[in-house]
Amino acid sequence: MASAQPAPSAAVEASAPAQANGNGNGNANGTDNKRPHKRPNPGNGGHGKAKDWKHKKTKREKNITEGSSEDVLRHDIQALLESRKSSEPTSNDDNTGDTTDELLPEEGTEADVEVLELSSTGDGLAMRPGSNQVYVVPFAIPGDTVRVKVFRHIRRENQTVADFLSVVKPSPLRDDSRIQCKYFASCGGCQFQMLEYPEQLRLKRRIVEKAYRNFSNLPAELVPTIQDTIGSPLQYGYRTKLTPHFDGPPGFRPSKRAKNPKIPFESCPDIGFMQKGKRKVLDIEDCPIGTDAVRQGMIRERERMQQEFKKFERGATILLRENTRRYPSGGDEVAPEEGQLPPYTVRTEGEGFVDVKSCETDSKATTTEYIGDHIFTNPAGSFFQNNNSILPKFTSYIKERILPPASSSSSSTAAAASPIKYLIDAYSGSGLFTITLASVFQHSTGIDIAADSIASARNNASLNGLGEDRCKFIAADAGQLFKNVAYPRDETVVVLDPPRKGCDADFLAQLRRFGPKRVLYVSCNVHTQARDVGVLVRGEGDGARYDIESLVGFDFFPQTGHVEGVAILNRHDGDAEPVQEEAVEQTDS
């Protein structure tokens, strides 16, 4: 499927007002034409004198980690500049990509820019006529011409951070009648509410494509075509967890609270989420991407804060987590009817059951949710996927593909003699994959570094009728897992679901030395996933190397730029036998 329609090639003239400067002269760029322009110091936002600026990394550059939002944005900006450079006629004085001597709008002034591309962070990438500077603009899409307020120039990276003000000329892709939240374009949460949902899915497919192009370090022929992004059944009302917050009283300083006198709130503080590009909480009465139960909880907590705000002396985060109580049809207990429901609860009917949903705010309280026929309980404050509507589709996709397809090379005579019988679920959390996939395998092992997660996983296994003869859970660092694994590598598949930073090098090296027949990698950060998959495919050093069978995105967070990635890999035939590891003791607690 195609990605976003190409933006018009002609840029729109900037409309920044003339700004007076120190000697009373100014132009539309807010700069003094009579004053010689100095090379910028990248460390101070593009102003002042530079010293060896081309050769030394700034503090900002040193702090950018691989696969982070800043790193992703930098790749997207350079790709845009390179594409424009290759498509425009060259000249002897061509300086595409160099803005060190370019006159740019003064910070704080307004300008009109044309959005040419969408970054993988969800922000628009825009430019002005005759300029090599890329403006990073939230809430803008390719084809838009928007008015922005310049916040900061980062000349060394050809980047300008700008605040969105208004749409001057809308993109053909934009339809603001689709926007369902009155805080859109102020709240830092959603970015795509003006887009039809199929277009959001096309853009997210492109995000996965760019991730593997920029971060995998693999030749194009080793990366299969990215499949169409699989959408969420719900595009609004899907989030089962929200965490609005409020700041401390005016004058409150968290680092000095022990020394400062107590400062009470004089009125109820703003409660909500951060404004885009600002360190200020935007007061939000309702969030339409939350489930009905979570939205009811938000109403309740805002009402409570109106009565209790004087009890607080500092800012805080409010947990809103959906909790489900299920009443099977024909069971001993009968679900209350609509008029009998407790306040702030929601009643829904399914096939063979009625669910009564409430909102939990105590992080230590136990919450329950269902995925198909499976039940999961977790502490309300712990991590669990926040879009329950897509989880049945997601777990079914994984289950249908956890074993090699019948037509693959894995169905050869040698492979058929050793079919996959075992599952290792690294970063298992409270057991989502171990439990939903248990019926496929002879035995499964889940591992997580957090003992609390392992306790939840064991409880969830018991709730789903799975004893230790079917699956077990180990509390240990995943990096130590393969040193004492008992499963034969030719009969084992490994599921990876690491945090956003991805897997560390030691873990990937250990995984390759063990060399399982098949690997399924799930990630909330497709950029670090692409980096790690590249390591497995290149197979440098000891251990197995892998071929990519498929790559696909899942849209867990509609209206935002986030996409969940699923990569399936098979061990390359003919690779070396596993390297023997020194055994280490593992604990079951």
From TrEMBL:
<feature type="active site" description="Nucleophile">
    <location>
        <position position="524"/>
    </location>
</feature>
<dbReference type="Pfam" id="PF05958">
    <property type="entry name" value="tRNA_U5-meth_tr"/>
</dbReference>
<feature type="binding site">
    <location>
        <position position="385"/>
    </location>
    <ligand>
        <name>S-adenosyl-L-methionine</name>
    </ligand>
</feature>
<comment type="similarity">
    <text>Belongs to the class I-like SAM-binding methyltransferase superfamily. RNA M5U methyltransferase family.</text>
</comment>
<dbReference type="InterPro" id="IPR002792">
    <property type="entry name" value="TRAM_dom"/>
</dbReference>
<dbReference type="InterPro" id="IPR029063">
    <property type="entry name" value="SAM-dependent_MTases_sf"/>
</dbReference>
<feature type="domain" description="TRAM">
    <location>
        <begin position="104"/>
        <end position="166"/>
    </location>
</feature>
<feature type="compositionally biased region" description="Basic and acidic residues">
    <location>
        <begin position="71"/>
        <end position="87"/>
    </location>
</feature>
<feature type="region of interest" description="Disordered">
    <location>
        <begin position="1"/>
        <end position="108"/>
    </location>
</feature>
<keyword id="KW-0949">S-adenosyl-L-methionine</keyword>
<dbReference type="GO" id="GO:0051908">
    <property type="term" value="F:double-stranded DNA 5'-3' DNA exonuclease activity"/>
</dbReference>
<dbReference type="Pfam" id="PF01938">
    <property type="entry name" value="TRAM"/>
</dbReference>
<feature type="compositionally biased region" description="Acidic residues">
    <location>
        <begin position="95"/>
        <end position="108"/>
    </location>
</feature>
<dbReference type="InterPro" id="IPR012340">
    <property type="entry name" value="NA-bd_OB-fold"/>
</dbReference>
<feature type="active site">
    <location>
        <position position="524"/>
    </location>
</feature>
<feature type="binding site">
    <location>
        <position position="448"/>
    </location>
    <ligand>
        <name>S-adenosyl-L-methionine</name>
    </ligand>
</feature>
<keyword id="KW-0489">Methyltransferase</keyword>
<feature type="compositionally biased region" description="Low complexity">
    <location>
        <begin position="1"/>
        <end position="30"/>
    </location>
</feature>
<keyword id="KW-0808">Transferase</keyword>
<dbReference type="InterPro" id="IPR010280">
    <property type="entry name" value="U5_MeTrfase_fam"/>
</dbReference>
<dbReference type="GO" id="GO:0006400">
    <property type="term" value="P:tRNA modification"/>
</dbReference>
<dbReference type="GO" id="GO:0030697">
    <property type="term" value="F:tRNA (uracil(54)-C5)-methyltransferase activity, S-adenosyl methionine-dependent"/>
</dbReference>
<dbReference type="InterPro" id="IPR030390">
    <property type="entry name" value="MeTrfase_TrmA_AS"/>
</dbReference>
<dbReference type="GO" id="GO:0032259">
    <property type="term" value="P:methylation"/>
</dbReference>
<dbReference type="InterPro" id="IPR025795">
    <property type="entry name" value="tRNA_(uracil-5-)_MeTrfase"/>
</dbReference>
<feature type="binding site">
    <location>
        <position position="497"/>
    </location>
    <ligand>
        <name>S-adenosyl-L-methionine</name>
    </ligand>
</feature>
<dbReference type="InterPro" id="IPR030391">
    <property type="entry name" value="MeTrfase_TrmA_CS"/>
</dbReference>
<dbReference type="GO" id="GO:0000014">
    <property type="term" value="F:single-stranded DNA endodeoxyribonuclease activity"/>
</dbReference>
<protein>
    <submittedName>
        <fullName>tRNA(M5U54)methyltransferase</fullName>
    </submittedName>
</protein>
<feature type="binding site">
    <location>
        <position position="427"/>
    </location>
    <ligand>
        <name>S-adenosyl-L-methionine</name>
    </ligand>
</feature>
